[in-house]
């Protein structure tokens, strides 16, 4: 079974940076999008960033100019580079791979932005 394993979360001060990684344990065919979502305490899950199969990216307005999504297709890995972090970015971050027929999720990694 396909598993998505996330890493890179942690505690960072406001203005700092983190890079999240999410790697699939097995091959996934026909991926059309890789996504990062986040869920803050007491809030619903929100879409943060997307990279499509053609390389086009989308970002939530709240992270534009600060976050960058990228991928390494040979490793079935997606990254989220997070710069200029704010306290409001504190959340559990989940990676997500979408194929033609399936939706795969990572286990989540905690990002805490605090002084």
3D architecture notes:
This protein is mainly beta and 115 residues long. The chain is built from no helices and 11 strands. Strand 5 (46-52) and strand 6 form a beta hairpin.
Quick summary:
With 115 residues, the protein is mostly beta strands. The protein is built from no helices and 11 strands. Strands 2, 4, 5, 6, 9, 10 and 11 form a 7-stranded mixed sheet that branches. A 4-stranded antiparallel sheet has the order 1-3-8-7, with no helix packed on it.
Features:
115 residues, mainly beta, seven-stranded mixed beta sheet, four-stranded antiparallel beta sheet, 11 strands, 0% helix
Structural class: mainly beta
**How much beta, percentage-wise?**
over 45%
Helicity level: under 10%
Mean pLDDT: 94
Record field, number of beta strands: 11
Total helical elements: 0
Radius of gyration based on Cα positions: 13 Å
Order of helices and strands: EEEEEEEEEEE
Which descriptor suits the 3D outline?
globular
For the biggest sheet, the summary is: 7 strands, mixed
> Which residues form runs of ≥5 with pLDDT under 50?
none
